[in-house]
Amino acid sequence: MHGHLPLHDPKKGRRAPRRPADWRWQSRNAVTDLAALERALVLTDAEREGVRRAAEAGLPLGITPYYLSLCDKHDPACPVRRQCVPTAAEGVEVPGDLRDPLGEEAHEVAPHLVQRYPDRVLLPATDRCGVYCRFCTRSRIVGDGGGPVPLARLEPALAWLRAHPEVRDVIVSGGDPLLLATERLVALLSAVRAVPSVETIRLATRCPVTLPQRVTSELVRALRPLHPIWVMTHFNHDKELTEASSRALARFVDAGFPVMNQTVLLRGVNDDAATLERLCRGLVKRRVRPYYLLQADPVRGTGHLRTSIATGVALMAQLQGRLTGIALPRYIVDTPGGRGKVPVLPETVVARGDGVTTLRTFRGELVDYVDPPG
């Protein structure tokens, strides 16, 4: 695979077999330094500087061999490469940048438990990911070396849940919770499921995109008894819809896991209607619901990857009418400071009169809707 030294068996003095289909092999052999990345890609000076900066003070470099294989070796504008290879622009702060854009630290109600809405909470279970995406909302904490949170350290969070029955939905996130060993993940989810008031568990994972080998038959068999579990995944470009990722999605769906996708709107990756249309159609074909098109969070050092909200609104206007309803995501801005998600729609109400509302259709036509009397 790209960017790795040969594996050798020190006892036998010969090359050990590669096992790219094994998720642990993929995780162990992730590219994490400049030398390995140089062997895989023809880097620009800006990318080299970005990798050096990441090694010193920024979000770590980490790319699975699988995901690296999707990168164009020669093109720094490759939509996959832009998501995973650091650049010097990460050292540039712009107005509006925030260290913790969603105010998660301010909304922590117990260690490792964040509540921003009355009926749901976020439980970050680990700081590790298969790939460290350069636009990560939690770049302040992921990859900091802490690893999986021991179940004993999550007991205060579980006790808080037991004491707050108004919470019905628990989002297990990270990092990426699927980087946990299956036994550890089952133990965690079983503890959450044992809270009587918890109705739904959501697994927020990018493994189907960056490490699809993790989604094994053994994994879905182990998780099925804990239903209802919804899988919230994160495809940003149709180039990520490979045979391997399609198999991972099919395993989840066939085992009764609803799969929803949250796409982040990213400059130079998917900020055009044709790309988003291909992605959404490809997801629906794989029985995955395009759920959100998320405005990129204003994380410090990500200004080069963010678009304006006006761009997102214009894209949604183009997609409306081109995509069937089950393929059309909602455009969402997760407001800074943890004040919640706000749907943003194209202006379709042109005028309001006495009992008459004038609407603009996706074709640009103006149509009057007359309210019933009384």
Helix-strand layout with pairing:
Blueprint: E1 8-9, E2 14-15, H1 23-28, H2 34-40, H3 45-56, H4 65-68, H5 79-84, E3 108-110, E4 113-117, E5 120-124, H6 155-163, E6 169-173, H7 182-193, E7 200-204, H8 207-210, H9 217-223, E8 229-233, H10 243-254, E9 259-265, H11 273-285, E10 289-295, H12 309-319, E11 330-335, E12 340-343, E13 349-352, E14 356-360, E15 366-370
Parallel strand pairs: 5-6, 6-7, 7-8, 8-9, 9-10, 10-11
Antiparallel strand pairs: 1-2, 3-4, 4-5, 11-12, 13-14, 14-15
Helix pairs in contact: 7-9
Short description:
The protein has 374 residues and is of the alpha/beta class. It has helices at residues 23-28, 34-40, 45-56, 65-68, 79-84, 155-163, 182-193, 207-210, 217-223, 243-254, 273-285, 309-319, and strands at 8-9, 14-15, 108-110, 113-117, 120-124, 169-173, 200-204, 229-233, 259-265, 289-295, 330-335, 340-343, 349-352, 356-360, 366-370.
